[in-house]
Amino acid sequence: MTKYENIIKQKAQNKEPADIDALAKKYSMNVIDVKKLKEYLHSKDYWKDPDYKFLVEENAELQKRIIELEQEILEVKVDNKKLAQQISTMLERMRDADF
Predict the structure, then answer these.
(1) CB-based burial label for 41 (10 Å; 0-12, 13-18, 19+)
(2) Rounded distance, CA 93 to CA 99, Å?
């Protein structure tokens, strides 16, 4: 049911009302099942679910990795600027030496 949970969550995040009849028809589900699923997603039990906790932890790890990668990108950009400056300095020296 994860696929359906994601659809309902996405609609909730977009603040669009979830069209239960359309969801049920699209995924060949019973309207009653979709309503139960929607109620479950809004219950406190869902947020205590181990799967949810795993996703929160996974999200935190991914956020840390993104920060690390952004830092690496900034370091590479700084290095590239330094190398470009060194190359232009060398080219100026060569021109001055009439190469």
Answers:
(1) middle
(2) 9
Using CA atoms, how far apart are residues 88 and 99, in angstroms rounded to an integer? 15
Amino acid symbol at 64? K
Domain residue ranges in the chain: 1-48, 57-99
Region 17-28: what's the mean pLDDT?
68
Model pLDDT, residue 13? 66
**DSSP output for the chain:** -HHHHHHHHHHHHTTPPP-HHHHHHHTT--HHHHHHHHHHHHSHHHHT-HHHHHHHHHHHHHHHHHHHHHHHHHHHHHHHHHHHHHHHHHHHHHHHTT-
Closest CA to 7 of 22, 23, 21: 23
